[in-house]
Amino acid sequence: KKEIQQVSEEEVEQLMQSLPKVTIMNNKLELVNYQGFWHPSLANYLKSTLLFQRHFRARNTDLIIASFPKTGTTWLKSLLFSVVNRFNYPNKDQTPLLKHHPHELVYRLEVDVYGNAFEYPQPQHLDDLPSPRLLHTHLPYTSLPESIMTSRCRVLYIGRNPLDTVVSLYYFSVKMMKNMEGEDFRHPSMEEFFEDFYTGRVPHGPFFEHMVGYWNQSLERPDKVLFFKYEDLNDNQVFYVKKLAEFVGMPFSTKEESQGVIDDIVEMCSINNMKELEVNKSGVINKYFEKESYFRKGEVGDWTHHLSPSMVERMNTLSLMLEKLEGTSLSF
Ligand code: A3P
Fold first, then answer.
1. Could you tell me the sign of the dihedral formed by the alpha carbons of 319, 325, 326, 330, in that order?
2. Pfam families in the record, alphabetically (predicted)?
3. Is the pLDDT of residue 167 over 60?
4. Res 1 pLDDT > 50
């Protein structure tokens, strides 16, 4: 078996020292700016990112979900898994989603696989996964390993409106920090966290640049990158699940449609259903992330309960400004 080449600690150390750093979450979470985006420095994240960038070889059949945190990754993972595996588990009571959290079925490359720290398959095992491999990354488009760009593998991105994303990220981050630091962790207020999000200083931020990178690719190479918006998916799930299936080359037949296969998938992956599954109610992913914390409300517009009018106005102004600056047609 091919040995995975290592990235030396010295190299990581030197790189770390040369990169800009900030701390957020009341000075408890350090981020380093690598290739224009902020990444957590915990858990040797930079090292595993380098390993992923250098050693991952995409197969033409790979299906890679990409996302900014809290934009609907878990949802898209469960939908993609269901669509691709529907012939393996024709009986809906057999779907592995009943026994595994979606994050255990679609691995995150730079953490689960190349992070090496947890109970997931090691990089060598990537070769043993059957095609199509379903994988995930939070890296921005410009940091993806070259073979993802050059192979014929496909990328599915999910974006979400910034207001719901910042709220979702706030609650998730506070939980995560309490798990890391202890219950008495003094968490930042929403105002403080908003400021960090606004200035891009959150894991994988800046948010807009992350989305725009993939959005532009989805316009330039529509057969390579499919861009979902959380809100659109929420409004018209059947339509987008069909679109997803077509994009990955496994369209639904008319017979399947009339048998209600799409509706079953939508129902199975709905937040209300997923939230109630025993497997998603307890336990953790990667030590600090409670399985249940991936299913909070799943609503469009929950921000109205959490953000002040001035925060909303500032964020909207920033979105508009960036839309103009980037010359992008992406809007929420
Ligand atoms: P909220 O915190 O607004 O509820 P990610 O999967 O990228 O970490 O994103 C998590 C967000 O997606 C959370 O948003 C979560 O509740 C929501 N979510 C998780 N599963 C979902 C599903 N099946 N349908 C809709 N939203 C879902």
1. positive
2. Sulfotransfer_1 (PF00685)
3. yes
4. no
Does ligand 1 have an atom closer than 6 angstroms to the CB of 298? yes
pLDDT at 4: 54
Q: Which of 39, 55, 136, 138 is catalytic?
A: 138
Q: How far is the CA of 146 from the centre of ligand 1 (A)?
A: 30
* Reported pTM: 0.96
Q: How far is the centre of ligand 1, averaged over its atoms, from the C-alpha of 299 (Å)?
A: 8
20: CB partners within 8 A, 6+ apart: 32, 33
- Tokens representing 121 are 């398959």
Q: How many structural domains is the chain composed of? A: 1
pLDDT in tens, 275-325: 999 999 999 988 889 999 999 999 999 999 999 999 999 999 999 888 877
* CATH number assigned to the domain comprising residue 201: 3.40.50.300
The verdict on the CB of residue 198 being under 6 Å from ligand 1 is no
Q: Is the CB of 75 under 6 A from ligand 1?
A: yes
In a domain, 53, yes or no: no
Q: Give me the torsion for CA of 121, 124, 125, 126, rounded to 10°.
A: 100
Tell me, yes or no, if 187 is annotated catalytic. no
Query: Does residue 70 sit within a domain?
Result: yes
Does residue 265 fall inside a structural domain?
yes
Give the pLDDT confidence score for residue 321 in this predicted structure: 85
How many angstroms separate the alpha carbon of residue 150 from the centre of ligand 1?
31
ipTM: 1.00
Position 46 pLDDT exceeds 70:
yes
Nearest CA to ligand 1 atom 18: 298
> Which residue range(s) make up the domain with 196?
58-326
